[in-house]
Amino acid sequence: MVNKDSLLNESKQAALNQLRVSYETEKKEQLIKNLRQKATIHKLRGDHQRVTLIIGLVLVVFLALLTWLFYNRRQLQNRLKFEQLRSKLSRDLHDEVGSALANISMQAELLVLKNNLQDERLIKMPNMCKEAIQSINDVVWSIDERYDKLQDLMSRMQTYLHEVLEPAGIQPIFRSETSHPDKMLDIQARRSIYLIFKEAVHNVIKHSNATQLELCIREMKNYFEMSIRDNGNGVGKSLGSLGHGLKNMQQRAKEMGGQLEIYAQAGYHIKLTKYLP
What we know:
By secondary structure, the chain is an alpha+beta fold. Helix content is 70%, strand content 13%. It is built from five helices and five strands, in the order αααβαββαββ.
């Protein structure tokens, strides 16, 4: 009897242990399942956040690109309008004002010749009109977008040297060292460089007693240099009468972001330097 009870107790204990093991196993499996579910949920949340972040970044980049394209389009439209305005102004100045001044000059010359007039004001009028026409032509050239390249500026300078120096008995010498002759110049720089050049040449003709004038243009990468020198006596004694012109030259150089050096003794020499964009 005792053995039977003992066997029964052992059987119950074994069954109880089995139930306990099954419970613990089931509990562990449930815990593992819960952990896996939490890990899956956490991963899904992380994936969702990453997807949201990526979508947000894509939208930001898209909006930035759209804004940039819109801005560039507006800039291009404004530039085209500006170029069209430049062309129209240059044509109008040449056709209307230039023609009117040329007609006035011709009429004044005919009036003086036909009537043998000695009025100094009438005699000077044709030359004054021609000077005004030349100034108008310079303005037309400076705003015409067809001449925005460095090569165009150098060509006009060469032409001007021959036109004004040879009648004055001065030999023009032109030298250039350029790596990018097709480099574009903005309106202000191109006009300022040319007017400084003209003023310097005018000073040589009027005050220097030179027989040679050398113009040297250098351009390398973003550096521009214009040097004008002669073999005359300098213009030191004439600095008083040159005051206004020299101030204008310095002001033009400053406005375009350049630096101008002027040497007026023992040969007239100026050097203009500027960094180009």
